[in-house]
Each structure stands twice: as structure tokens, then as C-alpha cells.
Amino acid sequence: MKIATYNVNGVNGRLPVLLRWLAEARPDVVCLQELKAPQEKFPEKAIRDLGYDVIWHGQKSWNGVAMLSRVGEIHETRRGLPGDPDASQSRYIEAAVNGVLIGGLYLPNGNPRPGPKFEYKLRWFDKLIEHAAELLESGVPVMLAGDFNVMPTERDVYKPERWLDDALFAPEVRAAFSRLTDQGWTDALRAMHPDETIYTFWDYFRNAYRRDAGLRIDHLLLSPTLADRLVDAQVDRHVRGWEKTSDHAPVWVELGDKPKRKRAARPTKQPG
């Protein structure tokens, strides 16, 4: 099963790009962020015409998340993060699809730092960590997918020295991401590319995409049972080069139907 996350940066304005990518990549399940559309303005018909079931949580002008599936019905389990400090913001949607529970999220940006937006980001992150722990305790296969607005390490940001005061690279935010993954989540993209410089976002300014001056802020986190099924994880970075595209590229994982076989330990050679 191929599961993707994609911050579309305006689902209606970027609809041709989204539909082109869906037709090309044919992901089984997709989490979208930054719809920037109220509930009644979501382009449901265009997406269903491609063979996808879809649910969405819209908001006028800002935020907004959705989930698409072409491998079975989407069974929504939650809309909004439990204990969200500002429930008026559409940032979280959760559903079971084809045997996997998926939380699609758009974590607050948090700039400027310091300030109320940064404090909201930290509070939202704390609530996500609490909910993520409960999801792991459930024992079901779970994935958290979306735009986390955090670069976990210096390897995940072009020229990290320029980002020291930014909310996406703040020590408190990176520490929160570590607290989250330390629960037992696997960062799928980094697991498949442990030593590579790999980005998911390139700003529109200063020719960032062509210079590869990017950030890795879109993540797919897998519970232990899903991590055992991880086959591949990639960024469709060429999509960022399309005309009128988002400043993010789609990120996806491929999961096998069964856990990968682990090599049996070699028997210890006995002296003699």
C-alpha cells in the first residue's frame, strides 16, 4: 500500500497540479494539508472522478486537512486533535483505511518566535504527543502523516545557521519532535535514507528549488507494526518543479502486506 502526504498550499488554486500528480503517482491513500478552502468549497467531484473516496476538514482561507483513498472506504474516527488549544483551526483528521489508522495533520508554523503563535505551536505539539501515545497503546497499525513544520536535525535544513531563530528549527520544537519519535515511532523517510540530504519543501523566493535550498518538514511516522512493513519511502521532488505548483513536494511510503522477514541469527560456532 502506498500512502502519501502532500501540503497542496491551496487545493483549488493548485487543483490541476494535484490531479496531475494523483494520476501519475496513483497513491492508495493521501493526506492533504493547507486546503485553504471552507468545507463547502472543497473540490470533491474532481477527486472522486479519479476514483478516490475523500473526507475533509476545511477552513476559510487557512489550514484545512483531507484524506483520500482508492483502496477502500475511509472510516473517520476523529476530526480535530483532542484538547486542541484552538479548535477553530482545521489541523487534524483521523481515519481507518484498509486496516491502517492514519492521523493526517498540519502542525502550526509558530512564527514569529517568541510570541503567542509560537506558544500555540508548543501547546499543540504537546497535545499531539499525548494523543500519539494513546494511539500507540491501542496496538493497531498507526501512521501520523503531514506537515509537521519542524526540521528534526541540522541535516534536514539548508544552511541551518540561518534558521536558529525560526520556529521550525527552535530547540523546543526539535525536542518535542524527539519526544514524539521516542515513543516508538519510525521516521520513514529518514529510515530509508539515513545519510542523505533530502528535502520536502523549497521556498518560492531566491530560486530555492533550483539551488536545492530546502527543508525537510513533511513527515510520515510509523508505529512499530507498520515500520516492520516498510518497503520504501521517497519524495516526488519533481512535482515541485511543475508550473503553479505548491512549495512542498509529495512524500510517500510503500508498505508491504506482511512484515519483512528478519534474518535469523547465525548459530554460534562451538569450539572443538
From TrEMBL:
InterPro entries in the record: AP_endonuc_1, AP_endonuclease_F1_BS, Endo/exonu/phosph_ase_sf, Endo/exonuclease/phosphatase, ExoIII-like
Family classification: Belongs to the DNA repair enzymes AP/ExoA family.
Molecular function in Gene Ontology: double-stranded DNA 3'-5' DNA exonuclease activity
Keyword vocabulary terms for this entry: Hydrolase, Magnesium, Metal-binding
Domain of life per record: Bacteria
Organism of provenance: Sphingomonas rustica
CC cofactor: Mg(2+)
Catalytic activity, EC: 3.1.11.2
Gene behind this protein: xth
Presence of keyword Lyase: no
Residue stretches making up the Endonuclease/exonuclease/phosphatase domain: 4-248
Matches recorded under PANTHER family: EXODEOXYRIBONUCLEASE III (PTHR43250)
A Pfam family per the record: Exo_endo_phos
Name this protein carries in UniProt: Exodeoxyribonuclease III
